[in-house]
Amino acid sequence: MTIRERLRLTAKQAALLVRVLQLLMIVILVTGLWFGSLGIVVNATTGLLVSQLPALFKRRYGFTMDVGLVLWITVPMVLHALGTVPLPGLGFLTPYQAVWWWDHLTHALSSSLVAGVGYATARALDVHTDAVDFPPTFLFVYLLIFMMAFGVVWELYEFYVTIAAQLLGIPDILTQYGLEDTVLDLTYDLLGALLVSVLGTAYLTDVSNQLADLLDTRAP
After folding, report:
1. What is the pLDDT of residue 218?
2. Is the separation of the CB atoms in 123 and 204 below 8 Å?
3. Helices 67-82 & 11-35, crossing angle to 10 degrees?
4. Contact at 8 Å (CB) between 84 and 27?
5. What pTM value is reported for the model?
6. In 10 A of CB 169, how many CB atoms?
7. What is the pLDDT of residue 131?
C-alpha cells in the first residue's frame, strides 16, 4: 500500500493537494518579498525548489514517483516555510516562536525525508551490484548513524548561520535556540530515521528499484 492509498486519497486528489501546498509556498514567498524578510524568502524559495525535484527527475531521467511521496516531500517544506511567517492569530509571532511542537514536527518530517534518501540510495546500491550486501539489520543501524550525522552537521550549520547573521547585522535565516533545543532537534531527527527504518520497505521499494535501474543504464 502506498502513502497515497494509506491516506485514502486518489491520485488526482493528492496531486491537487501538492499544487495547493506549492501555491501556499508561493504566497509565503510573495509575503516575504512584500515585507522585505530575507528569512521568509530564502525558506520559501528553498521549499519550492525541493518540491519541484520529483518533476525535474521525471523530465530528466524518466524517474517516476508516486504522488504520495511527492506529498511527503512537500508537506515539511510548507510547514518549515510557514513556520517563519509572523501570523496575526499568534500575536504576530511565527509558529516556530509561538507553537512549542512546531519545530519538533518539522524536524521529524524533514529528517524522515533525509533518511528516506539514505535508505533508497543504499537499497539501490544493494540491488544494483553484487559487490555489496546490506542485510536489514545493517540498513537499520546505517540509517540511524546516517541521520544522526546529518543532524549534527545541520545543527552546526544553523549555529554558524546564526553567528554570521549577528556579525553582519542581518536578520536570521535559520535560528539556533540553544543547547537544549539542539538536543531535542537531534532526538526528533532520530525519530524520523526510525520511522523510515520501519516503513522504508513498504513505501520506498519502487524508488530504490528505479534508482538501481538508473545506475544500471549509466554503468560503463
Report:
1. 59
2. yes
3. 20
4. no
5. 0.84
6. 6
7. 76
- Find, among 80, 92, 104, 93, the residue nearest to 173 by Cα: 80
Q: What does the chain come to in residues?
A: 220
Query: How many CB atoms sit inside 10 A of residue 163's CB?
Result: 11
Report pLDDT for 216: 67
Q: What is the DSSP string of 144-159?
A: HHHHHHHHHHHHHHHH
**Separation CA 32–CA 41 (nearest Å):** 5
What is the predicted pLDDT for the residue at 1?
Answer: 61
pLDDT of the residue at 176: 64
| 61 CB burial (10 A radius; 0-12, 13-18, 19+) | middle
- Asked if 75 contacts 109 with a C-beta cutoff of 8 angstroms, the reply is yes
Nearest to 103 by CA among 112, 113, 90, 94: 94
Nearest to 160 by CA among 173, 148, 145: 173
Nearest residue to 141 (alpha-carbon basis) of 184, 71, 193, 99: 193
Kindly list the averaged pLDDT for each block of 10 residues, start to end, along the chain of length 220: 74 90 96 90 92 86 82 92 90 89 88 85 81 80 84 81 76 66 82 79 77 68
The whole-angstrom distance between residue 120's C-alpha and the CA centroid of its chain comes to 14
How many helices (H) and strands (E) would you count in the chain? 9, 0
